[in-house]
Amino acid sequence: MVINSETRHLDAVFGALADPTRRAILARLASGEATVNELAEPFAMTQPAVSKHLKVLERAGLISRDRDAQRRPSRLEPKRLAEASAWLEQYREFWQASFARLDDVLDELQGKKSKREKASRSLRKE
Amino acid sequence: MLFYPESFKLSTPTDREILIERDFNAPRDLVFEALTKPELVRRWLLGPDGWTMPVCEIDLRVGGAYRYVWHKESCNITMGMGGIFREVVRPKKLVATEKFDDAWYPGEAVDTTVLEEKGEITNMKLTVLYESKEARDTATRSGMEHGMVAGYNRLEELLASMGVRA
Fold first, then answer.
1. Does any domain span residue B166?
2. Cβ A97–B24 below 8 Å, yes or no?
3. B164: number of CA atoms within 13 Å, CB side?
4. Which of A56, A107, A118, B45 is the most buried (most CB within 10 A)?
């Protein structure tokens, strides 16, 4: 499959997404920024445990944290998530586009008019 | 815009596999031919518009090799991959290894293609099984073969929970 290979940083993204707690944290941050304290509570986790997850998410570029402020709230960085989604979308697109062509080849082998030919013909009529 | 039938499915049955399913409106023998004859394969296994397949060689027997090279003229990109057939059960099943020249995941993947006849329709299930032990050992440096595969459903689930469409 033809997939762009210049996406190695996605390793970190998918690694980060592999953990259910980190996904829950991201889902929580989707509704607004939160401090370590605010995140620790609903997940019944200690602050150091939450901090560890936040570090992984930050390294993957999925969240950012305010360096200076004392509260250091975490916020979602949707761009990196969108990149990951786009990468997977490429996979889907590769096969969908290929299979659409395979449909045409199979139709032709069976002596049928290809769907695309038919579609373009009916478009021309309009 | 192309028409994509509903029968297309992409899923992740285990954290090392990707399963691609699709129905074709043709007898199984014909689908098998289209998957294994170079002059047919190079006409469709192209992905998005703009790619051609200057090399498409298939030695269809157990132990036989295949080699694909794609080229995108507009960007002057060339990429190749190939592998060895492990099982050839005409017209039902193919098992082959797959390795890209410039692989972004360690080791080989194993592709299993199963064709089933359902009346006038042929159902294809393509399972890509990423990797083996030696790759798993080096996998610490790459979350891709685990993370990417396992990540697909998770990502969709996450995006759904966030109100984003994957």
1. no
2. no
3. 19
4. B45
Structure tokens at B18: 């990707």
| HSE value, Cβ hemisphere, 13 Å, CA-based, for B110 | 11
Q: Does residue B2 sit within a domain?
A: no
Q: For residue B34, give every residue at least 6 positions away whose Cβ sits within 8 Å of its Cβ, in sequence order, or none.
A: A102, A105, A106, A109, B26, B40, B41, B44
Q: Is the ipTM of this complex over 0.85?
A: no
Residue numbers of chain B with a pLDDT score lower than 50: 1-4, 133-153, 164-166
Among B44, B51, B161, the residue with its CB nearest the CB of A2 is B51
Topology classification of domain A10-77: Arc Repressor Mutant, subunit A (1.10.10)
Of A7, A12, A98, the CB nearest to B46: A98
Tokens 């929970």, residue? B161
Chain B residues lying within 8 Å of A80, measured CB to CB: none
Residues with Cβ within 8 Å of B130's Cβ and at least 6 positions away in sequence, in order, are: B16, B17, B18, B105, B107, B109, B145, B146, B149
Segments making up each domain of chain A, as ranges: 10-77, 80-125
A10 and B148 within 8 Å at the Cβ level: the answer is yes
**Cβ atoms of residues B132 and B151 within 8 Å:** no
Domain coverage including residue B82 = 9-161
Q: What's the number of domains chain B is made of?
A: 1
pTM: 0.61
- Residues contacting residue B137 through CB under 8 Å, at least 6 positions apart: none
Percent of chain A at pLDDT above 90? 29
* CATH number where B23 lies: 3.30.530.20
